[in-house]
User: Fold this.
Amino acid sequence: SDASASGLDPRRLLHAIRRRWLPALLVGSLVAPLVAVPAWFLLPKGYEAVVWLQMRPEQGMLGTFAAGQDRKTQLQLIKSPMVLGSALRRPGVAELQTIREQPDPADWLAKNVVISAPAESEVVTLRLRGPIAEDTAKLLNAVTTSYLDDVVNKDRAERLAKRDNLEKKFKENQ
Assistant:
């Protein structure tokens, strides 16, 4: 009996709501716009696309990325004019409404692609926020594909070509 008298039980709560519903409704009606209006203006507008890439430390001649400085270089290359220009030249990208509305699409893309790369992690996230969901996803996928094609796979192909040349020279000298 003492525990229920000093605590809050469902019966007392229901009784309090029945007694004070009008003041609660009025206070809620006044506080709701004070919270909703700033939230409307402060929350980011549009849609966000996210891509996760794994950058591994170099594992010999066929490794994808070297540790340290090369990792920083790779992160800068994602937003390089070469990669962004290649992404904008991909089929269907130039026709996207988001791109057509920009006076300088490459500059807009460079400013809006956000790269997050914690120092101890192999995972890199690319984010792009835009007004149209489909356009945002296609743009970020185009940037990712261009980076993989023009930087990562190109480096790998060059390393394989060097290895093949070394093997060829080695066999000739035997």
Summary: Residues 4 and 56 are 61 Å apart (CA to CA).
